[in-house]
């Protein structure tokens, strides 16, 4: 798939850590909410390692708080995680399973683009590149691929005839239209090369994977239903003999 502006497929990220004098200590994983009272934003309980910054509800467990787990409580009802991309809308948390270290979330940036409708400016990114470091898209999700191509493009027209694609409400006059393909299984390589359309740029969006047969025309509802994310336990800072030690909980 050819890149175009902000349209691109999943890129493999390599995280670099500087050498430090860290001591690996086997520690018993703390139970969520232990030693402090959980907070709530809307219908979602916010507890360790997540924490709230809303001035009215205060912070939950996590001392000191972990930056990537910072949750904003919008209108005292919508818990939001920030995007790793500046000025891009983040993720609404639908629910959290602390035992499974997983949660369902909605990519609000995608809904912003869909609501824009006829717009020639599309700051549209793969969902995966918007996630902060501890969070991972679970492989149980299916994927929705959005193609940005001209309506007359041969590959897109053929796919539409085969009912593989559905036209969305996002376009730029007569220049291009966005199409959706649903039901794409997880690709461990992150390339999704088998779903490329010549002359069309694309982005990949995870959607609920409970059904192997989903209708691409329901793309907006699929976005709103959210997708499954997991997280890695954050480093916990302990103090031994006044010397800071980073501890990674047993997984």
Question: Could you write a compact summary of the structure shown?
Answer:
By secondary structure, the protein is mostly beta strands.
Strand proportion: 25-35%
From the alpha-carbon coordinates, what is the Rg to the nearest angstrom?
Answer: 20 Å
What is the domain total for the residues?
Answer: 1
Tally of individual helices: 4
Please provide a written account of the structure.
The chain is 11% helix and 31% strand. Residues 2-35 and 237-251 have low confidence and may be disordered. It has one domain. The protein has 251 residues and is mainly beta. The protein has helices spanning 108-116, 127-130, 154-161, 219-225; strands spanning 39-41, 44-46, 51-52, 70-74, 78-81, 91-97, 102-107, 135-137, 142-149, 166-172, 176-184, 201-207, 227-231, 236-240, 243-247.
Please specify the SSE layout and strand pairing.
Blueprint: E1 39-41, E2 44-46, E3 51-52, E4 70-74, E5 78-81, E6 91-97, E7 102-107, H1 108-116, H2 127-130, E8 135-137, E9 142-149, H3 154-161, E10 166-172, E11 176-184, E12 201-207, H4 219-225, E13 227-231, E14 236-240, E15 243-247
Parallel strand pairs: 3-4
Antiparallel strand pairs: 1-2, 4-5, 5-6, 6-7, 7-13, 8-13, 9-11, 9-12, 10-11, 14-15
Which features would summarize this protein structure in a list?
four-stranded antiparallel sheet, WAK_GUB, disordered N terminus, seven-stranded mixed sheet, Wall-associated receptor kinase galacturonan-binding domain-containing protein, polysaccharide binding, single chain, 4 helices, mainly beta, 11% helix, signal, 251 residues
């Amino acid at each position: 798939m050819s890149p175009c502006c902000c349209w691109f497929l999943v890129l493999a990220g390599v995280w670099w850590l500087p050498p430090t004098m860290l001591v690996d200590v086997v520690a018993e994983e703390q139970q969520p909410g232990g030693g402090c009272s959980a907070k709530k934003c809307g219908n979602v309980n916010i507890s360790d390692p997540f924490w709230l910054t809303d001035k009215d509800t205060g912070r939950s467990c996590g001392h000191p708080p972990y930056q990537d787990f910072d949750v904003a409580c919008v209108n005292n009802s919508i818990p939001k995680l920030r995007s790793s991309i500046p000025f891009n809308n983040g993720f609404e948390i639908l629910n959290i399973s602390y035992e499974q270290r997983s949660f369902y979330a909605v990519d609000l940036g995608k809904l912003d683009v869909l609501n824009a409708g006829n717009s020639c400016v599309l700051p549209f990114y793969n969902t995966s590149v918007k996630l902060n470091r501890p969070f991972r898209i679970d492989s149980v999700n299916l994927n929705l691929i959005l193609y940005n191509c001209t309506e007359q493009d041969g590959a897109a027209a053929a796919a539409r005839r085969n009912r593989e694609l559905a036209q969305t409400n996002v376009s730029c006059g007569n220049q291009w239209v966005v199409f959706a393909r649903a039901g794409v299984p997880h690709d461990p390589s992150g390339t999704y090369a088998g779903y490329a359309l010549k002359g069309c740029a694309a982005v990949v969006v995870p959607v609920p994977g409970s059904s192997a047969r989903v209708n691409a025309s329901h793309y907006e509802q699929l976005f709103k239903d959210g997708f499954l994310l997991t997280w890695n336990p954050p480093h916990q800072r302990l103090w031994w003999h006044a010397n800071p030690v980073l501890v990674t909980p047993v997984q």
